[in-house]
Amino acid sequence: MPPDRLPTGIASVDRLLGGGLETDVVTELYGEGGSGKTLFCLDVAARVAREGRWVLYVDTEGVSLERLRSVGGSDLDRLLGRFLLSAPKDLEEQGRAIAAACALARDGRRPTGLLVVDSATNFYRLSLSSPEEDDAREALALELAELVATARARAVPVLLTNQVWRSPKDGSLEPIGGSFLNHAAKTILRFDRREGPLRTVVLVKHRARPEGSASFRITSRGLESADGG
Ligand code: ATP
Ligand code: MG
């Protein structure tokens, strides 16, 4: 594994990514509800915390602590000891939470292995078509710039999740936030639902890897490769 990768622990996804998440960039995960974005973030976060590094987790959906209990198993207390969780309730609080997380990652007193924002576009989506839309886009753009700079400065991988909307043109599922979010993210993964617990991850954009896809399965023990290995 190259030194600049954080393995996800899901063999198929790590193969797709050439060893894991790039550590100095923002990775965007987008896909419809239930496609496994939150579970993926928690799975990688639990892995980082088990190795003793800190996870800075901005949770705008208010679900991760409960979910963490299910991925943490008997290690839960040890994992929680390495988690700094914030749960902003609106776009303004999200901005403060991201600024605080970036400051912590940069000051280096707690060796940080991962920064997660799940979801980055939840509150922004609520502002669409309202008078606040432009301000919300500007706020989100500033947050993204800060996350990009932090990942680069400290080699802290950043995971952002993003929801989708259905294009009226051809019915395809498109990420919310459009091009400015897609430019900030150097790696983009689309999560697709398949039958039962199966999910596909499509590599849409990467600096150094060809496009491709991988499958995983959601289980009660976490996420497992579904591509033989
Ligand atoms: P959203 O955009 O709504 O936040 P998401 O992409 O974050 O969605 P997750 O919450 O990560 O999606 O995925 C939840 C999915 O995982 C649901 O479809 C749920 O049924 C499924 N799931 C959870 N636990 C299990 C399990 N033990 N076995 C199979 N499927 C499970
Ligand atoms: Mg989610």
Summarize, please:
With 229 residues, the protein is an alpha/beta fold. The chain has helices at residues 11-16, 37-50, 64-72, 76-80, 91-107, 122-127, 133-154, 178-184; strands at residues 5-6, 21-22, 26-31, 54-59, 83-86, 112-118, 158-162, 164-166, 173-175, 187-193, 198-205, 212-219, 222-225.
Keywords:
8 helices; two-stranded antiparallel sheet; nine-stranded mixed β-sheet; binds magnesium ion; alpha/beta; Rossmann fold; binds adenosine-5'-triphosphate
Tell me about this structure.
The chain is an alpha/beta fold. It has one domain (5-225): P-loop containing nucleotide triphosphate hydrolases (Rossmann fold). 38% of the residues lie in helices and 28% in strands. β12 and β13 form a beta hairpin. α2 crosses α3 (64-72) and α5 (91-107) packs parallel to α7. The chain is globular, with a radius of gyration of 16 Å. The model has no long low-confidence stretch (mean pLDDT 93). The structure holds adenosine-5'-triphosphate and magnesium ion (MG). The site of magnesium ion (MG) has 4 residues, from α2.
Any ligands, ions or cofactors bound here, and which?
adenosine-5'-triphosphate, magnesium ion
- Individual helix count: 8
- What does the main sheet amount to? 9 strands, mixed
Helix/strand-derived class?
alpha/beta
Proportion of residues in β-strands: 25-35%
From the 3D coordinates, which CATH architecture would you assign? 3-Layer(aba) Sandwich
What would CATH call the class? Answer: Alpha Beta
Question: Segments where pLDDT lies below 50 for 5+ residues?
Answer: none
Radius of gyration: 16 Å
